[in-house]
Design brief:
Largest sheet: 9 strands, mixed
Distance between the termini: 28 Å
Number of domains: 1
Shape: globular
Radius of gyration: 20 Å
Helix content: 25-40%
CATH topology: D-Maltodextrin-Binding Protein, domain 2
């Protein structure tokens, strides 16, 4: 199954044998800074967010996730000693990670056991296992789009895993390993909408986008005849869609998938992803030799099938996507 016209149904929730989740945090941390945008939600959007948390979220298979992380490789002493970055982490006995705990698919805190699980969280835990021999030896620091660079510059963390988009501007102050994942923009519509099936169908439609994200500029270029309505938060945009005040909502595909996993049977993706490819990297201190070390680690994760299995557990199985994407070329 491709992402085109994808719907997560309530039947999938039951079929996967997954339970309810009524206390999950807000979907956050897509590839753009918009995922960290702040702003008070309107009464309508607050109501919509409350209804969302009461839906049958397709939860992660925590047992399969934990078992997978425990199979990760451990670097030998020669590999560690050849890297100043890895040696520092090894000597400290813990890896300091900047990340988030509210991203539905990439890093979400399970309040029942205090563990972070998701695609980013899993890669961070695999890296900790690779360096320290124990995936639990992580000190987590929450970051936002405004603090991801500074925590690396100030030596508050050793690395950042936070759906962190690689950009030339950021590379002036930090370094990136990877990329390890790519994404584009996608169109979210209500499940009963049959009029919109591609970006071309947005002509003449009212389309929501998040202010501060790349969505509005991409829509101006690729859907010039659409009427764009900007909202401060993801919740406000989805509320407008649910209430019929807009016909579609355009933002990062991963945020859309997260909304669908939280609200099975409510939305569908209309058409294929579009717009510029956004590559995620692993943040490291500027000019750190950790870049080469982590890139070797990423190659091992891919070669051993861990990247594919982690993607299935965190994203594919939950969103009903059978086709595993090709990981991007590391170091590109």
């Amino acid at each position: 199954m491709s992402l085109s016209n994808l719907t997560v149904s309530r039947r999938q929730v039951v079929g996967l044998g997954l339970g309810l989740a009524t206390t999950l945090g807000l979907v956050a941390c897509g590839s753009s800074e918009s995922s960290d945008a702040s702003g008070s939600s309107s009464t309508d959007s607050s109501t919509d967010a409350t209804e969302d948390t009461e839906d049958e979220t397709v939860q992660i298979d925590s047992s399969a996730y934990d078992a997978l992380i425990a199979t990760g490789s451990v670097a030998d002493d020669a590999a560690i000693s050849a890297s100043t970055w890895a040696t520092k982490v090894k000597d400290a006995g813990t890896m300091r990670v900047g990340g988030v705990q509210t991203s539905m698919l990439f890093s979400l805190l399970d309040e029942t056991d205090g563990k972070l699980r998701g695609f980013d969280a899993g890669l961070a835990q695999l890296l900790a296992r690779y360096v320290l021999g124990d995936e639990s030896k992580i000190e987590n620091t929450q970051v936002t789009s405004d603090t991801r660079e500074s925590v690396l510059q100030n030596d508050q963390v050793d690395t950042v895993f936070a759906t962190y988009s690689i950009s030339d501007k950021r590379k002036e102050v930090i370094s990136f390993a990877g990329p390890y994942y790519t994404t584009q923009q996608s169109i979210l519509v209500n499940v009963d909408n049959t009029d919109i099936n591609s970006v071309d169908d947005l002509a003449g439609k009212n389309v929501a986008a998040q202010s501060g994200s790349t969505g509005p500029s991409i829509l101006e270029e690729l859907a010039p005849d659409a009427t764009i309505q900007e909202f401060k938060t993801d919740e406000e945009a989805r509320a407008a869609l649910s209430q019929g005040r807009v016909d579609a909502y355009v933002i990062d595909t991963n945020m859309q998938l997260g909304s669908m996993v939280r609200n099975p049977g409510k939305y569908r993706l209309a058409g294929d992803p579009f717009g510029p490819v956004d590559a995620y990297g692993i943040g490291l201190p500027l000019d750190s030799d950790g870049v080469d070390f982590v890139n070797v680690f990423l190659h091992k994760v891919e070669d051993e099938g861990l990247w594919e299995d982690l993607w299935k557990i965190c994203i594919g199985n939950r969103a009903g996507i059978e086709d595993v994407p090709e990981p991007p070329a590391i170091g590109a």
